[in-house]
Design goal:
This protein is of the alpha/beta class. It contains 10 helices and 12 strands. The chain has 2 domains: 51 residues, Roll (Spermidine Synthase, Chain: A, domain 2); 224 residues, Rossmann fold. It has a 7-stranded mixed beta sheet. The chain has a 5-stranded antiparallel beta sheet with strand order 1-2-3-4-5, covered by helices on one side. A hairpin with a 4-residue loop joins strand 1 and strand 2. Bound molecules: S-adenosylmethionine (SAM).
Length: 284
């Protein structure tokens, strides 16, 4: 087959990353955002929303494992989980691997992301949307969290970056509504972008959340297609300080669930909360 030399760019304010692609497989405008699916040489199929890489076949497991197993294994008995965003189904897939989970609600604003990923990237959700414990809600996550009277042990905000429909998922009101939707002992995690080109997002998130939750800690891990250094997630709880959790407890829960993971491990979990000094001072 003739080698294809098309390149597709992901553009940030002062940074552009190009991916060599065999083909642009799909490109469409939904009611909420521009969606593109690439067949790339390096990362396999790649989903972009409004020009930003959301997930790829080759490295999706890192993000989905770290966004899920860190909060769930930090909690003694996570039964009810809420995912806001996450239309590709990767976080949902990992949540459902925990035997303690009785219900996994997922609130996604754009149904076309779900149908698109089910069709073109089926292994990311891997049937999770058909699981009897899944409760799929098509709505704006900010709207839903304000109105719901459900209470959750874990809330995972797997939204796109603060632009377009996701903008509101970075507001103080949203975080306060999340706090109210957590059961006692609950945990919230949210992606807070890469440490180099989205440091301002980490500062803003920490600035809002430290006045709402008792414990607010970043954890870092590498996601090659989330460009700009380490990728960050903030872990928020009133009762659980992730930096002091006994790794023995995490290991016990990990083994109890018979989890088989490719990036996550109890040691990685514990180490991820040790932030390099130059970044630590960035956030405080
Ligand atoms: N892992 C990616 C990241 O870290 O940027 C996020 C992946 S997931 C595809 C992001 C999802 O958030 C998209 O499906 C998008 O439609 C959804 N989303 C954006 N704004 C939303 C909102 N206000 N309520 C619910 N879902 C939203």
């Amino acid at each position: 087959m003739k080698e294809h030399n098309e390149w597709v760019s992901e553009k940030w304010q002062n940074l552009e990353v190009r991916y060599r692609v065999r083909k642009i497989l799909q490109e469409l405008k939904t009611d909420f955002q521009h969606m593109m699916l690439l067949d790339s040489y390096e990362y396999g199929k790649m989903l972009l929303l409004d020009g930003i890489v959301q997930t790829t076949e080759k490295d999706e497991f890192i993000y989905h494992e770290m966004m899920t197993h860190v909060p769930l294994l930090s909690h003694p008995n996570p039964q009810k989980v809420l995912i806001i965003g996450g239309g590709d189904g990767g976080v949902l897939r990992e949540v459902l691997r925990h035997d303690s989970v009785k219900k996994a609600a997922i609130v996604e604003i754009d149904p076309e992301v779900i149908s698109f990923c089910n069709e073109h990237l089926p292994l990311i959700s891997n049937g999770a949307f058909d699981d009897g414990r899944t409760d799929l809600i098509i709505a704006d996550g900010a709207d839903h969290i304000r109105k719901t009277d459900e209470r959750y042990d874990i809330i995972i905000v797997d939204s796109s970056d603060p632009a377009g429909p996701a903008q509101i998922l970075f507001s103080e009101q949203f975080y306060r509504d999340i706090y109210n939707a957590l059961r006692p002992g609950g945990i919230m995690v949210r992606q807070t972008g890469s440490t180099q080109i989205q440091a301002e997002e980490q500062r803003q998130a920490y600035g809002l959340l430290k006045d709402i939750f008792q414990y607010n800690s970043f954890y870092l891990y590498p996601v090659p297609t989330y460009v700009g250094g380490f990728f960050s997630t903030i872990f928020c709880s009133d009762t659980i300080d992730p930096k002091t959790i006994d790794i023995k407890n995490i290991t016990e829960r990990f083994n109890l669930n018979k989890l088989r993971t490719k990036y996550y491990s109890p040691e990685i979990h514990s180490g991820a909360f040790h932030i390099p000094p130059f970044l630590e001072e960035n956030y405080l």
